[in-house]
Amino acid sequence: MSELLTGDLYQFESLLGADDRKVLDRVRAFLDAEVRPIANEYWARAEFPHQLVKGFADLDIAGLANPDAGGSQRSLLNGFLALELARADASVATFFGVHTGLAMGSITACASPEQKERWLPAMARMEKIGAFALTEPGSGSDIAAGMTTTARREGEEWVLDGAKRWIGNATFADLVVVWARDESDGKVKGFVVEKGTPGFSATKIEGKIALRMVENADITLEGCRVPEANRLAGAGSFRDTAGVLRRTRSGVAWEAVGVMMAAYEIALDYARSREQFGRPIAGFQLVQDLLVRMLGNTTVCLGMVVRLAQLQEEGTFRDEHSALAKAYCTTRMRESVGWARELLAGNGILLEHDIGRFVADAEALYSYEGTREINTLIVGRAVTGISALT
C-alpha cells in the first residue's frame, strides 16, 4: 500500500530490517483477519475477545524485544508492533502492552534470575497473562507519595492489604504485579500475586466510554498472603517502579501514532468515496486541509518515536525522552481523531464507520501512563533543573 494511504509519508518503516518487516507483515495479516472484523462488536459489548490470545501466542511476538524471554533488544520493531496493534484497535494494543510492557517489563527489570526463569518464558508464550497493579482509588498521579496499599512481612510470607483501580487484564490474568508500601521501611516494593491467591479479588469496572474491550478492574487485597519467593527481588523503591513506566510510556506514544494513522486512513478512504454536490468530498479544499493536518501530525510523531526507539537501543534513553513523546504524541492524536470525526460529519459517530471507536479510545490513551500535565513536568524538570512536581 502506498505510504500516502497508510500515513507513513516519509517511509520510516523502511528502517526495519527484512526479517523484522516480515514479522510486521505477519502481524498485519492477523489483525486484518482476526481483529478488525470483530472490533466494533466486542467494543460495543464491552467484552474482551479471549479467543484472540491463542492467535497472539501463535504469532510469537510477546518476547521478541525481551532478552530475558528469549528475544533481543529490538526497540524499533517493538514500537512498530505497538503502532500496528493500535492502528487496528487501541483496546487490543492496550491488552498486549499491559502484558508485555508493564507485567513482563516489571519482571524483566526487577526480578531475580530465578524469578525470570519461573515466569517470563510462559508469559512470552502467552500461556500465562500478566497485569500490573499500581494506581489506587485515591491516588493516580500522586501514587509515589500517596500509595496506601501495604505489605507486611510475616516469616516467609508477605501480607498485602489495600485496593487498586483501573487494572487492565486483572479479571483474567494469571499473575498480577502488585506494588505496595512496606510497613517496616516505607519503601514501595513489587509482588507477583498469582491467580487463585486467597484475599485477592478483581471486579470488572463497568460503564466505560473508552477502551471498552479492556477489562479494567477494581482490585481488593484483604490479608492477601504471598510467599517471599514472589517478592520481586530487585524492586526496593518507587524508583524501580518508575523505571518500568519510563519504558512503557514510549509504547503509549507509539500506540498514539497508530491511532492517528488509523484516523487518517479512515478519513482518507471516506473522503475518496463520499460524494456531495456531485463529486467526492476529497476534492474540496477544506477536506484536503483536514487530511494534510492529520498526515502532518502522524508524520511528526512517527519521526519522534522512531528516534526514541533508537535512543533505547543506544542505551541513552532517559525519563524526559519518553515523557515528551507520550505527552506530545497523545495530544496530537487527540487533535487528529477529532479532525477525522469532523470530516465524516454525522457518520463519524456511528461504530460502523470505525472512527467513533478511535475517538473514544484516544481519551484513555491521552490520560493513562501519566497525564499530559505530569509528563510535561517531568520534561520541565529536566530542561530547567527545577522540579515543579512538589
Automatic annotation (TrEMBL):
Per UniProt, residues of the Acyl-CoA oxidase/dehydrogenase middle domain are 131-223
UniProtKB keywords:
FAD, Flavoprotein, Oxidoreductase
Cofactor(s) the protein needs = FAD
Molecular function terms from GO: glutaryl-CoA dehydrogenase activity
Q: Which SUPFAM superfamilies does its entry note?
A: Acyl-CoA dehydrogenase C-terminal domain-like, Acyl-CoA dehydrogenase NM domain-like
Q: Where is the Acyl-CoA dehydrogenase/oxidase C-terminal domain?
A: 243-383
Q: Tell me its EC number(s), please.
A: 1.3.8.6
Class in the EC hierarchy, top level = oxidoreductase
InterPro entries recorded: ACX4-like (IPR045008), Acyl-CoA_DH_CS (IPR006089), Acyl-CoA_Oxase/DH_mid-dom (IPR006091), Acyl-CoA_Oxase/DH_mid-dom_sf (IPR046373), AcylCo_DH-like_C (IPR036250), AcylCo_DH/oxidase_C (IPR009075), AcylCoA_DH/ox_N (IPR013786), AcylCoA_DH/ox_N_sf (IPR037069)
This protein's source sits in the domain of life called Bacteria
Which residues are in the Acyl-CoA dehydrogenase/oxidase N-terminal domain? 19-127
User: What is stated as this protein's family in its record?
Assistant: Belongs to the acyl-CoA dehydrogenase family.
Spell out the protein name for this chain: Glutaryl-CoA dehydrogenase
